[in-house]
Specification:
- The complex is a heterotetramer of chains A (254), B (102), C (614) and D (114).
- Chain A has one domain (36-250).
- Helix content of chain A is 71%, strand content 0%.
- Chain A is built from nine helices and no strands.
- The two termini of chain A are 34 Å apart.
- Chain C is mainly alpha-helical and 614 residues long.
- Chain C has three domains: 1-132; 163-270 and 576-614, no CATH class; 277-448 and 469-565, no CATH class.
- Helix content of chain C is 73%, strand content 1%.
- Chain C has helices at residues 4-21, 23-26, 30-55, 83-106, 112-130, 134-152, 161-190, 195-202, 209-225, 233-241, 244-274, 277-301, 305-325, 329-360, 365-368, 376-389, 396-407, 413-440, 450-457, 472-490, 494-505, 508-516, 540-562, 567-570, 577-586, 591-613, and strands at residues 60-63, 78-81.
- In chain C, helix 1 packs antiparallel against helix 3 (30-55), helix 12 (277-301) packs antiparallel against helix 26 and helix 14 (329-360) runs antiparallel to helix 17.
- The chains are: A mainly alpha (254), B mainly alpha (102), C mainly alpha (614), D mainly alpha (114).
- Chains in contact: A-B, A-C, A-D, B-D, C-D.
- Chains A and C meet through helix 1, helix 2, helix 4 and helix 8 of A and helix 1, helix 5, helix 6, helix 7 and helix 9 of C.
Chain lengths: 254, 102, 614, 114
């Protein structure tokens, strides 16, 4: 099929599909008129039932916690998939780099000023990541956002030109294991409930007395923690694999 | 909107950024939606991949703004970290690998 | 005992995480790693077998974290299990186990990644089968998808493998996002994600645009996954390049899961809401029959054995969809048995191809002509399984297909049976042609178009060096699977049990009561009063049809092998020269085309359904 | 305003699919897939919105204050993670494909493969 034929074929099909889709959408209650009941029921009962004032986190980690288990494993297995696919290249690098003295100390063109300015942000990134990861139940945050921000701290270290430091902090095997501990830890928290004779993922830690406090929502903080390290590890692994590819080229590999 | 007026802490500052009357909120949402639609078009029509990564980053920001206007600060934060930062970063890394050999 | 339900999903996930965390420890100990993975699959299969026996008495409903419905509103996620879903999940676990046993000596270079990917793939499939929540279904669908994409690209050094994986991943991702759009659309009206609750809510209104569009969008992703024409293009590309043990899972159960999803979504959410059974039935059946015939034609022209088997899977997916489309218990029961039989037979065939690739280093039928004579045992297993795929009576495949044909009077028995026989003959003929040519050296070595040769030769051995003998760990799974297909086919009382399961699967009211009110085991009314339950037996006519179609397959295979010696055929008849060019235009390998066809196909499907229901 | 957000949803889906179909560069194609997926975020959020309601955080707001639907937001969060995961995997495929074939044009990839 030529590009022109394909385009017209698609446009014809898409025109019908768009009309069809709109036909369904116009019969919704209309924007701003969400009819419930799911969300309204949850809004009504979540604070009393889970002690979490951030209801989205309560949904993510409690009511629909099982979805989140699946979601974390999607990210986990995607990182493993990236490592699988790029694995072959990495082996080649180890052969090649024997010739020309491996990876030097980061990209040479980074100036000291840039390096310093970037490193200054590492501390705040770690802090923000930690804060986000640990306040799932109160504020609009949680392990996922915290994990990504934590991973950014590692990327900042790289941007500062400290690739060796980046690699020392994130050797592939270790990051792999940390990610696995994160994803597995979440699943294991759920299993603990089963071992106690409760349904899977039941919040088996006691709720505190103050709604919204970090320690008052039982397993939410624990799960959020595991999600945080899993996400951070997955992103560091993915970024690390891609970085190796890039550097492999820079250093005169193929 | 009474709750929004009472809000003072840092949390409420994020959660209820618009203590605006519904009519104004409507306008705001329409404007953002138009921008998002335009942004999506721009991302698709930018055929040069490096520029497209920038466009994608901008589109991520627009989406984040839209989530804020739809009272979803949680999603906003995710979209900021993923859509506006992490994905463009991955794209840049990929392109760096790909372009070096050309 | 309820606690078994979450464990079926969580155990493989936890083991996958554990072996990744201990990668540095396990990587040098390959056998231990294999043993852990195989035992995990066996444990999951055993747990699901227990679940299956329990579910035979009453629906099992499990609420995660103990969040039961709050005044009739589901606030958590549930697993709602009846025999068909438990049985399919169990089949998945058994096939993953067979694939892992086969890879014991097959894939030499594996690290923990392969095992982790296989286990999450299994977890995704099981979760997809058991869940009663539509968004949860999407999550497991995605986990299954992401694992499958990575497994397809498992040998990135292979020339075609990345392209197959990319086509697979992009096409299926588009489908998944369309499904998610449908889920959001339906949520906008019902405010529910629990399938039973959605079904109850939708049924309160007459069928309008939202219901039709929601149904079409949600099953869009499932149609792509189950390779229904014109959404099927990715399947052959992915099969051609995926490692053989992974092909077993793709053909044996992943495609069938897509069809299960369609059935699940229809009977738990849309059956009552859509109404117009005749219209829905006809629309689905048209796509099913089209798929069956197109897949069979492509299968016949293929010389790359893995691609050939992939096209036979497409053809069978069409037959299954037709069986579901009858919307009767007999049709669904037929599909259930047919799926089991097909999975066992197809898995055995793929494992034999794996052995051929292992020993002879090729999957090109032309090149292999007569070389398979050095593998007598594999040849016998392949031939037996090939007869199973051609629906020889006594095999479960033939039993299931007979039921579908018997039940097809609700549409048009003559037309359905004719098309079924045509596609069976073509598929059976193609596979028997391979068996005769490769393993017994019958007929003349076929000449081949250069295009085909290029395609087939890109496959190189998946194992490092050519092997002098076939390890038992490869032969035994293939033999056991082929034998199991016969055993299932002759099990006494199978018919009654499967049909009872099918009746329950289609009983929307009972499903609702079990999930939302906790009234398990209540069978309200049978919803398909329109069509009486026909007894699932073996009728003489269906046996005769099956025998006739097998004989025709054998004749076709012989004709394909010996056609140059037949003066009638030789005169100016070069099979498929003009056709090949047309066909190549469709099966182009360019993912842009595939997505364009998917959009067009969905527009047609939606349009036809909308007209049928109006 | 009642249907405008939904028109935007269809537009984004259509534009994204147009990009996927017409793309001549794998990385571009993957980004277009992100656009296709972003239509689902807009739809999810639009579907759960309640006019004049606050975000579902009850730290210092009474529980009975009308708030928008928290469930769709949780679903959108999951969706964002899925997007990140699938995109990363696809980009890895693209890198490898480039290394094998030296091109990222889907059509050239086919002709090189034969």
């Amino acid at each position: 099929m030529t590009a022109v034929q394909r385009r017209w074929l698609f446009l014809a099909g898409m025109a019908i599909l768009a009309g069809f889709y709109l036909w369904g959408l116009t019969e919704l209650p209309g924007f701003g008129n969400y009819p419930g009941p799911y969300g309204f029921v949850i809004n009504r009962i979540a604070v009393a039932q889970t002690n979490a004032t951030g209801v989205v986190s309560a949904v993510n980690f409690e009511y629909r916690g099982f979805d989140t288990v699946g979601e974390e494993f999607i990210l986990f297995i995607a990182a493993i998939g990236v490592a699988t696919v790029l694995r072959q290249l990495r082996n080649e690098r180890t052969h090649e780099s024997a010739g020309h003295e491996g990876l030097g100390a980061g990209s040479a063109e980074t100036t000291d000023a840039v390096r310093l300015a970037t490193l200054v942000f590492v501390g705040p990134a770690v802090l923000v990541g930690w804060f986000l990861g640990s306040h799932a139940q109160t504020s609009p945050s949680g392990g996922f956002q915290g994990g990504v921000v934590l991973a950014t701290a590692f990327v900042l270290i790289y941007l500062a030109g400290e690739f060796l430091v980046f690699r020392r902090f994130s050797p592939i095997d270790l990051v792999d294991s940390v990610g696995a501990v994160g994803a597995g830890g979440f699943a294991a928290v759920g299993i603990t409930a089963v071992a106690l004779g409760l349904p899977y993922l039941t919040n088996f830690l006691g709720l505190g007395t103050v709604p919204g406090a970090v320690s008052s929502s039982g397993t939410i903080a624990l799960i959020s923690f595991f999600v945080g390290i899993e996400v951070a590890a997955a992103f560091v692994l993915i970024v690390g694999e891609l970085l190796e590819q890039t550097l492999l080229v820079q250093r005169g590999g193929r | 909107m009474t709750g929004a007026l009472a809000a003072a802490s840092h949390v409420a500052a994020i959660t209820t950024p618009f203590s605006v009357p519904p009519a104004l909120m409507d306008t705001l949402q329409v404007v953002i939606l138009v921008l998002v639609a335009a942004g999506a078009t721009m991302v698709v029509l930018t055929r040069q991949p490096a520029r497209q990564a920038i466009a994608l980053s901008a589109y991520g920001l627009l989406l984040a703004l839209m989530f804020l206007a739809f009272q979803a600060p949680d999603v906003t934060l995710s979209e900021l970290t993923v859509g506006a930062v992490a994905l463009p970063l991955l794209l840049m890394l990929t392109l760096a690998k790909v372009r070096k050999r050309e | 005992m309820d606690q078994l339900l979450p464990l079926c999903v969580v155990v493989p996930l936890l083991v996958a995480a554990t072996i990744s965390a201990l990668g540095w420890l396990l990587r040098p100990r390959r056998r231990m790693l294999d043993a852990i993975a195989i035992l995990t699959c066996a444990a999951v299969a055993a747990m699901l077998a227990v679940v299956l026996t329990q579910a035979a008495h009453q629906e099992l409903v499990y609420w995660f974290a103990g969040f039961r419905p709050h005044h009739g509103v589901a606030i958590g996620i549930d697993f709602a299990v009846e025999p068909i879903s438990a049985g399919l999940a169990c089949l998945a676990a058994v096939l993953v186990m067979a694939a892992m046993v086969f890879s014991w000596r097959y894939l030499e270079q594996v690290s923990t990644y392969f095992h982790a990917l296989m286990l999450t793939f299994l977890a995704g499939m099981v979760g997809f089968c058991l869940t009663g929540d539509i968004f949860d279904m999407f999550v497991w669908f995605e986990l299954m998808g992401v694992s499958a994409y990575a497994l397809t690209a498992y040998r990135p050094e292979e020339r075609g493998s990345l392209q197959g994986a990319l086509n697979f991943a992009i096409t299926n991702s588009v489908g998944a996002y369309l499904s998610l759009s449908g889920i959001a659309l339906v949520y906008g009206r019902t405010g529910a994600l629990n399938m039973a609750q959605i079904g109850a809510d939708l049924a309160r209104h007459p069928p309008d645009g939202l219901v039709v569009v929601g149904f079409v969008l949600i099953i869009a992703g499932l149609l792509i996954k189950s390779a229904i024409v014109p959404f099927h293009f990715w399947l052959a590309d992915a099969h051609a390049v995926a490692p053989t043990p992974v092909c077993v899972l793709f053909s044996g159960v992943m495609v069938e899961l897509g069809l299960f999803g369609i059935a699940r979504v229809y009977w738990s959410m849309f059956g009552q809401a859509l109404g117009h059974r005749a219209g829905v039935s006809t629309t689905l059946a048209v796509f099913g029959l089209l798929t069956a015939v197109v897949g069979a034609l492509f299968c016949m022209r293929e010389r790359h054995i893995k691609r050939l088997l992939a096209f036979s899977t497409i053809s069978h997916a069409g037959l299954f969809l037709t069986g579901i489309a009858l919307l009767t218990p007999l049709g669904l029961a037929g599909v259930a048995v047919y799926v089991i039989g097909h999975a066992l037979v197809k898995a055995a065939l793929f494992l034999c191809v794996g052995i051929v690739l292992h020993r002879l280093g090729s999957v090109n039928e032309t090149r292999l002509h007569g070389l398979g004579r050095s593998l007598p045992v594999t040849g016998v297993i392949f031939t037996v399984a090939a007869f199973g795929l051609a629906d020889l009576p006594l095999f479960a495949t033939s039993l299931g297909k007979g039921w579908i044909e018997d039940g097809s009077w609700v549409l048009n028995k003559g037309a359905v049976t004719t098309l079924f026989v045509i596609s069976s003959v073509l598929v059976g003929g193609a596979v028997l042609r391979v068996a005769g040519g490769v393993f017994y050296g019958l007929g003349d070595p076929p000449s081949e178009s250069p295009q085909m040769a290029k395609q087939s030769d890109e496959e190189t051995s998946e194992t490092p060096e050519a092997k002098g003998r076939t390890p038992l760990s490869m032969i035994i799974p293939a033999a056991v699977l082929a034998a199991a297909a016969v055993v299932v086919g002759v099990l006494p009382h199978l018919g009654a049990a499967v049909e009872a399961a099918a009746v329950r699967f289609q009983d929307e009211a009972a499903y609702n009561a079990a999930v939302l009110s906790g009234l398990s085991g209540v069978h309200t009314s049978h919803p398909i009063a329109l069509y009486p339950i026909a007894p699932a037996g073996v009728t003489l006519s269906s046996v005769l049809t099956a025998v006739g179609s097998v004989i025709a397959s054998v004749l076709l295979a012989l004709a394909a092998l010996y056609w140059r010696r037949l003066p009638v055929l030789r005169r100016g008849f070069e099979p498929g020269t003009g056709l090949v060019r047309v066909v190549q235009g469709f099966q182009s390998g360019v993912v842009n085309d595939y997505v364009a066809w998917a959009v067009v196909g969905l527009a047609c499907f939606g349009g036809v359904l909308a007209l049928a229901i109006r | 305003m009642a249907v405008f957000p939904f028109v935007v949803v269809v537009w984004i889906l259509g534009v994204g699919l147009y990009g996927v179909v017409t793309s001549r560069h794998l990385v571009h194609q993957i980004v277009c897939l992100i656009v296709v997926q972003s239509s689902t975020y807009v739809l999810l959020l639009a579907v759960g919105y309640v006019t004049g309601a606050v975000a579902p955080y009850f730290f210092d707001i009474k529980v009975h204050t009308p708030a928008v639907d928290p469930v769709v937001q949780a679903l959108a969060l999951t969706d964002v993670v899925v997007e990140a995961a699938v995109t990363a995997l696809l980009l890895a495929f693209a890198i490898q494909a480039y290394k094998r074939f030296g091109t990222l044009d889907p059509q050239e990839l086919v002709s090189l493969k034969g």
